[in-house]
Amino acid sequence: MRLPIPGAERDHVFTLHTQADSDAIIARAEKAKTAVVLGSGFIGLEAAAALRSRELDVHVVSQDDLPLVKVLGPDFGRLIRDLHQEHGVTFHFGNSITEIGAEMVALKNGGEIAADLVILGVGVRPRVSLAEGAGIAVDHGILVNDRLETAIPGIYAAGDVASWPDPRTGDRQRIEHWVLAERHGQLVAENMLGADRPFLDVPFFWSAHYGTSIRYVGHAQGWDAIQTDGDIAAKNGAARYVRDGRTLAMAAVGRDLAALECEAALEAERG
User: Fold this and answer.
1) What is the pLDDT of residue 170?
2) Where do the structural domains in the chain lie, given as residue ranges?
3) CATH of 129-192, one of 3.40.50.40, 3.30.450.40, 3.50.50.60, 3.40.640.10
4) What is the pTM (predicted TM-score) of this model?
5) Would you say the C-alpha torsion 55, 62, 81, 212 has a positive or negative sign?
């Protein structure tokens, strides 16, 4: 989905959804000098890091105050911000793009940034039109039960579009990560053949920023408290995301064993 920004149709403006998008961005980057990335989520930041490795000047525009703060909290947000700034990325927080010109972007705060490459790293949403047309219930994804089956018997959904209940909390979750999509597909195939098994795998992902890898296990859409251990800023710490006294997820840097132990504990709770 392209955001309704004047100038978003220009030929130096890209989204990053497919391999073809990636190839087009790489080709454009070979002759570009300055790139502006809209969004400080995983897509935007990974694009920013890739462009810095090609020695472009990179600016990231974000409405948030810190990158990934809604997913990882402020401590990891500051760590990720600092990592990117140390590698030359310039952030424009609390801001947005109001117009894209031939050689610049205009910002909501009245500023302008020179840009001969623009990446819109926001605005992703699941494609549910096929399910809707078939009369299948949707709500920010295709609604499925713990077997990943929709309310229509024999029709399943897997991967980024599937919204299924967390076996521990009952909260609906929809997770965009390729490992989870693979595991969803495997279970759906088994259940279509009569296995009748619930999906109990603990979600996980990792995110690398200039050689620093952040491990995340579980899933927390919200939390009452974040319990930290160690020194996250020094790349040796972990954060537990807790709600109602229960650990929902953990993020860790330099503490892979702690992440694995948390994953094992979450798996044990799921039976």
Assistant:
1) 85
2) 13-120, 129-192, 204-270
3) 3.50.50.60
4) 0.90
5) negative
